[in-house]
From TrEMBL:
Region (Disordered): 23-51
Name recorded for this polypeptide: NAD kinase 2, mitochondrial
Alphabetical list of PANTHER family matching this protein: NAD KINASE 2, MITOCHONDRIAL (PTHR13158:SF5), PTHR13158
Compartments in which it is found: Mitochondrion
Length: 426
């Protein structure tokens, strides 16, 4: 609770004056008007259907229309295709597989009108850097996961990546166009041609890896199935260290994080041991459940859920801290709980275009040996030295790198890594 107690005090004092005036003001024959709970109606701002809830002030108007000549469409893997791949060696017929999966496997894809645009449709397995170089623009037809996949291969900051939510009932589609364009994508194309949109330059995190025993080869987590062998490997304390490479200099990893980077032990039940340096400051030993480093885009995702405060916790703090400035007859506990909760949670969000990293320590252990001076903080550069047994560094939930004892990761924002995306009005 102490991490946000100061915030609660400040929020309560800022609003107390307005609240008192509303309660004591002239003409108070009827119920007093409540101060607004933030600029847009409260803490649900991070939710919503697609881009209409982006933070205000983002994006820039294009100089003219945008008409690509070659487009690659990255289609999401359906449940049917997943099960088909999963049971490819089992003695199951197509009909048996359909019965196993059952209904609810719609196979949708974005249709691009034949207006002189050459289209190439690819799945996850066929999506590579060569395909990206061929295209003038990339369209992710799926949800946020498909958008992250499509963006992971794009290193050219001038190549647009456009997300279309093909299944709004099952996917939030925060990174995608508004839901109305799911079934009217030709309308979106016409707006692109006329320049009726904004470019949103989403910042991404660049990663360097150095030290002993590093392996810069990425692992696609979507291609792996959690198996007993993986658990056995994680539990094998006496790992052979002769296979580790000699110390090496910093290596730029071939991916950029659009949402976040997570660092921690592969087994969530094991504490992660590491050292951290923020903005080239002193190294600090820490033990925790791992750490999350996010961009403005990712501040609405996992990072938000790590740091958000619940109204129940706010109520406990208000009661314990005796922050109630008025008697219970005049005090609206529901109002104050919502106010403080919304204000605190809104402070966790920032623009996708802001060039800074928000790092968050998950469940830090504080004792005589280990400390956590800053559980959550904005920074421009974060370095982490691993002291873990079987840890990983996961980029956007889909690409993993080994990150064991001796490895050092440096994460920072570079303008050359911006991702060019599109904002369309409803």
């Amino acid at each position: 609770m102490t991490c946000y107690r100061g915030f609660l005090l400040g929020s309560c004092r800022r609003v107390a004056g307005g609240r008192a005036a509303a309660l004591r003001g002239p003409g108070a024959g009827g119920p007093a008007a409540r101060p607004r709970l933030g600029g847009d109606g409260g803490g649900q701002r991070h939710l919503g259907q697609g881009q209409q809830r982006e933070l205000a002030g983002c994006g820039s108007r294009p100089d003219g229309g945008f008409r690509p000549s070659r487009v690659v469409v990255v289609a999401k893997t359906t449940r049917y295709e997943f099960e088909q791949q999963r049971y490819r060696y089992a003695e199951l017929s197509e009909e048996d597989l359909k019965q196993l999966v059952g209904p609810g496997c719609p196979r949708r894809c974005v249709s691009v009108q034949n207006e002189g645009i050459e289209v190439r449709l690819v799945k996850r397995r066929d999506y590579d850097e060569e395909t990206v170089r061929w295209a003038d623009a990339v369209i992710a037809a799926g949800g946020d996961g498909t958008m992250l996949l499509a963006a992971s291969k794009v290193l050219d900051r001038l190549k647009p990546v456009i997300g279309v939510n093909t299944d709004p009932e099952r996917s939030e589609g925060h990174l995608c166009l508004p839901v109305r364009y799911t079934h009217s994508f030709p309308e979106a194309l016409q707006k692109f041609y006329r320049g009726e949109f904004r470019w949103l330059w989403r910042q991404r995190i660049r990663l360097y890896l150095e030290g002993t025993g590093i392996n810069p080869v990425p692992v696609d987590l979507h291609e792996q199935q959690l198996s007993l062998n993986q658990h056995s490997r994680a539990l094998n304390i006496e790992r052979v260290r002769d296979e580790r490479s000699e110390a090496s200099g910093p290596q730029l990893l071939p991916v950029r994080a659009l949402n976040e980077v997570f660092i921690g032990e592969s087994l969530s039940s094991r504490a992660s041991y590491y050292e951290i340096s923020v903005d080239d400051g002193p190294w600090e030993k820490q033990k925790s459940s791992g750490l999350n480093l996010c961009t403005g885009t990712g501040s609405k995702a996992w990072s938000f859920n790590i740091n958000r405060v619940a109204t129940q916790a706010v109520e406990d703090v208000l009661n314990i801290g005796e922050l109630l400035p008025y008697s219970y007859e005049l005090f609206d506990m529901v109002f104050w709980k919502e106010l403080v909760t919304n204000e605190y949670n809104k402070s966790l969000l920032y623009s996708p275009e802001e060039p800074k990293i928000l790092f968050s320590i998950r469940e830090p252990i504080a004792n005589r040996v280990f400390s956590s001076s800053r559980q959550r903080c904005f920074s421009s550069k974060v370095c982490v030295r691993s002291r873990c047994w079987d840890a990983c560094m996961v980029v956007d939930g889909g690409t993993s790198f080994e990150f064991n004892d001796g490895a050092i990761a440096s994460m920072m924002i570079n303008k050359e890594d911006e991702l060019r995306t599109v904002l369309l009005e409803q």
